[in-house]
Design a protein that fits this description.
two-stranded antiparallel ribbon; 4-stranded mixed β-sheet; 6 strands; alpha+beta
Length: 199
């Protein structure tokens, strides 16, 4: 891997720090050649601190290390993407990221949908919605709906109507997410189980 440390006068290149699992950006730092080599040797992210004027291994005081997983260089050879497993919060202010965000797995729209389903769970006794009514009807009804939708997916899978197959698949996934919430679990719990099996 070729990194152009000579591109800028100070010999530093930006290093974008990304959680290898969640893909969230945690912080931005700068590395010179010495910091890069020390990062590789320690397997802990080390920067050149412009304020301290020296090499600085993230977590050397707090023990909130950034354990190195992978480093990639961009198309111009002057910016690094450093994938890490963080040990504790990344920001010196105690937050997960330097933008004050929570470093949690995001499944795009499914995460937004999961938040809506969780809200319906929390307001099931008062909310006037289909999901709240499902929760009020009890776990057996929710599980039954998952079973019904699974059967409908199987039926549509045997035909050639992709539109109906995708709609029934969406119904199954939606009701399964409702069941997960009713049981006190989230998509991240299923992801964790699949990751454990993958190893």
């Amino acid at each position: 891997m070729k990194i152009d440390f000579d591109k800028y006068e100070n010999g530093l290149v930006p290093a974008i720090i990304q959680d290898v699992r969640t893909k969230n950006v945690l912080m931005l730092g700068f590395m010179n050649l010495e910091a890069y080599e020390k990062t590789l040797a320690l397997k802990k992210v080390t920067f050149f601190s412009r304020s301290k004027g020296r090499l600085w291994t993230k977590g050397e005081e707090t023990k909130n290390y950034l354990h190195l997983e992978n480093i990639a260089v961009d198309c111009d050879n002057d910016t690094l993407l450093v994938q890490v497993t963080p040990q504790g919060p990344t920001c010196h202010k105690g937050t997960d990221t330097c933008w004050g965000e929570t470093n949690k797995v995001n499944f795009g729209f499914l995460s937004k949908l999961e938040e809506v389903i969780e809200d319906r769970w929390n307001t099931k006794d008062t909310a006037d919605s289909y999901v709240a009514s499902l929760f009020r009807s009890g776990i057996n009804k929710v599980a039954q709906k998952v079973g019904e939708e699974a059967v409908e997916v199987v039926i549509e899978a045997k035909d050639d109507n992709d539109h109906l197959f995708l709609n029934e698949s969406a119904d199954l996934l939606f009701h399964y997410m409702v069941l997960l919430q009713a049981k006190g679990f989230h998509l991240r719990d299923i992801e964790k189980t699949l990751i454990a099996r993958h190893k």
